[in-house]
Design a protein that fits this description.
This protein is α+β, with helices and mostly antiparallel strands. The protein has helices at about 5-10, 15-40, 50-60, 60-65, 70-80, 85-100, 105-115, 120-150, 150-160, 175-190, 195-210, 210-225, 230-255, 275-295, 300-315, 315-335, 345-380, 390-410, 415-430, 440, 455-465, 485, 630-635; strands at about 450-455, 495-500, 510, 515-520, 530-535, 545-550, 555-560, 565-570, 575-580, 590-600, 610-615, 625, 640-645, 650-655. Helix 3 (about 50-60) packs across helix 7 (about 105-115).
Length: about 675
């Protein structure tokens, strides 16, 4: 029964599509701004262990295309060695899946292609992140429009934008897979004869990441449910062809990784757990996700109230579709808890939750739209009588609006702060200072057969990126008492070079306006050699450093936008400490100090000169020392010499060839 009022007529009009375009464009601009803020605030890619690992997989295509890759062959041999040590098994498992087994070949090829038009792998990663964000936004919108129409989709899209905002920033392959997967489902729902489009997008989704297999199966399932009235032969043909494509793509992935098959799949030696315990842990993750959703809408009671009233509001033609979408989504979430990966609780559940949250928001979008429709209808019919159905719907609309108003208090008010916190969190999380040229600078020291021991996976991956797998390395590992026992049988052991963390960990000192760090003298008089400070490139206005010494001297130094070394003129007479403070008000963003040196040292930091650095005035007892002896005392009996300390990682060379590498 039609309501025949302006809102109903507008639901499929040009105004509705214009409204959708405005919402889509506004959200796209907002998300792009968040993405650019994060990228501009970081020195390394987001989630560097994962993203740099994907960069390395893109580089391995050199080897897949027939080039000789001594480093990859060596790595394959190392990973293929048998061992009973669970610690070694775990690290070999990680390296196998990060470097030898590419489960996202289309992502690797896409990243490699974008690299051709980029100045670096980091820039290519930033570009593909933007591309992925736009693509995901588009296919989410497409699916919501197909399911619910333009105006409900616009409302649902606005709501979904504030769920899982970080997933619109991370350039993970599975998000590309999700984007193409959602597009394939939208295509088959929009046009029941659009098999070719569905299969094409589904194949792309599966080759971007194995997560795409779920989307392909979901699309097949949706088709069988939505179009069950078609001839049985047609449905059987569609199902058989879809399964054939699914199996074929699986074997394509196996074929593409055939070069590493001789390695086998190192056993994941993380702490084992029973299937039952793993499922319970996954269910706990699922419960926390649902609680998070409920809290966004004012709590569990209001959440249930909102959806119950919303479902009651739906016209009969919409109710079955929305309820079916909710049921299938709920079943998919429950089914995802059956996948148990030791050490990765809820890995699949968290990913399935993203499209499910979007479907939930779409249902709320439909409910919101029809709440407006019925409230408007009650006004139109206020002076007369109208059917009982309209009255019930109007009551449901009032209940829904009350719940919605309460939800918006919890949902909309914190959004600006949440977005700002998200940007700050992602900008700071594992924001290492990685110099891609570090390995090139050290290459002149490396002889044939030399190995480098990496105590950081990120540096380990960069080594292969910069050498194109042309040189030997060894497994990235944690500094451990049993390291020598674990790798003593490795050819070329002990390694001639060691890559360790910079004593500052992130390899720099970040200064906001009015923040300071202190250089303290522990022995000698290093300041009479002259002091220089190195800054990273700064965008916008130059920043001013205010220098004060224990002898009362002071001066201001302007850091150049291009970064680099800046001599500090007023410190020669200092005896105990020098404070370096950033002047307030010159710029709101952080500036990074990436080096402090005395005299004409070729290194970035003051090794073995008798000073320590307190990088944060809030923690005056934290004193960072740059002593090569500390590296030796950490585990290495043999003395070492630092040869490169650019960034978060330091490369040191062992100074003896025959002493045992590690303490027993």
């Amino acid at each position: 029964m039609s309501l025949h009022h302006p809102l109903e007529k507008m639901s499929e009009s040009r105004i509705a599509w214009l409204f959708l375009i405005v919402v889509f464009s506004g959200l796209l601009i907002w998300k792009a701004d968040l993405l650019f803020q994060v990228q501009n605030n970081r020195h390394s890619p987001v989630e560097p262990d994962d993203i740099i690992g994907y960069m390395t997989q893109a580089v391995t295509w050199n080897c897949r295309l027939g080039q000789t890759c001594q480093g990859l062959d060596d790595l394959s041999e190392v990973l293929g060695k048998s061992t009973d040590d669970p610690w070694v098994k775990y690290y070999r498992y990680r390296q196998f899946h990060r470097l030898l087994y590419d489960n996202s070949p289309l992502y690797s090829l896409s990243l490699r292609f974008i690299r051709l038009a980029s100045s670096s792998w980091e820039e290519a990663s930033n570009h593909i992140a933007l591309l992925g964000m736009v693509l995901l936004q588009f296919t989410v919108t497409w699916l919501l429009v197909v399911l619910y129409g333009p105006i409900p989709a616009s409302i649902g899209l606005g709501l979904s934008a504030f769920f899982w905002m970080n997933y619109f920033i991370f350039p993970f392959p599975w998000l590309f897979s999700l984007a193409f997967g959602l597009g394939s489902i939208a295509a088959i729902l929009q046009n029941s004869r659009g098999w070719v489009v569905f299969w094409s997008l589904g194949i792309i989704a599966m080759l971007f990441h194995p997560f795409g297999r779920l989307a392909f199966l979901a699309g097949t399932f949706f088709y069988l449910i939505q179009f069950q009235n078609y001839k049985k032969q047609e449905l059987i043909r569609f199902l058989l062809l879809s399964m054939a494509i699914f199996i074929a793509v699986f074997f394509i992935g196996w074929f593409l990784n055939g070069f590493s098959d001789h390695v086998g799949n190192p056993h994941n030696a993380q702490e084992s757990q029973s299937i039952y315990a793993g499922i319970l842990q996954n269910l706990s993750i699922l419960l926390s996700i649902v609680k998070g959703w409920a809290n966004r809408f004012g709590g569990g009671v209001n959440f249930v109230w909102l959806f119950a009233a919303g479902v009651l509001l739906l016209p009969a033609s919409w109710r079955m579709r929305c309820v079916l979408a909710l049921v299938i989504s709920s079943l998919a979430l429950l089914a995802s808890t059956l996948l148990v990966l030791p050490g990765y609780a809820g890995a699949l559940t968290g990913r399935v939750a993203l499209p499910v949250s979007m479907i939930l928001c779409g249902v709320l979008g439909v409910a919101t739209w029809y709440a407006l429709v019925y409230l408007w209808s009650s006004i139109l019919y206020f002076k007369g009588s109208f059917p009982k159905l309209y009255r019930l719907n109007t009551v449901a609309a009032v209940i829904f609006v009350v719940g919605a108003l309460q939800s918006f208090t919890f949902f909309l008010a914190p959004i600006p702060a949440a977005a700002n916190n998200l940007v700050n969190h992602i900008s700071a999380r594992h924001n290492y200072l990685i110099n891609p040229d570090q390995i090139k600078n050290v290459a002149k020291y490396i002889k044939k057969g030399d190995r480098i021991l990496f105590l950081s996976e990120e540096a380990f991956y960069y080594y292969y990126i910069q050498t194109n797998f042309k040189k030997l390395a060894t497994i990235a590992a944690s500094l451990d008492d049993n390291l020598e026992d674990r790798y003593r049988n490795l050819e070329g052991w002990p390694p001639r070079f060691i890559s360790i963390w910079n004593p500052l960990k992130i390899g720099r000192i970040d200064l906001a306006p009015s923040e300071e760090f202190t250089i303290k003298v522990e022995k000698g008089s290093p300041f009479n050699k002259g002091l220089a400070i190195k800054s990273a490139r700064v965008k916008g206005l130059p920043s001013i450093l205010s220098i004060t010494t224990d002898t009362g001297n002071s001066c201001n130094v302007e850091l150049p936008n291009i970064g680099g070394w800046q001599t500090i003129p007023c410190v020669e007479a200092a005896t105990k400490n020098v404070k370096v403070k950033r002047a307030a008000g010159d710029k709101e963003s952080l500036i990074s100090i990436i080096g402090v040196k005395f005299g004409d040292s070729s290194l970035n930091w003051p090794w073995n000169v008798g000073v320590s650095i307190t990088p944060n005035s809030k923690y005056p007892d934290v004193n960072i020392r740059f002593n090569e002896a500390d590296i030796k005392n950490a585990r290495f009996k043999c003395p070492v010499r630092v040869i490169d300390d650019q960034g978060s990682f330091v490369i040191a060379q062992r100074q003896c060839d025959f002493d045992p590498l590690l303490n027993k």
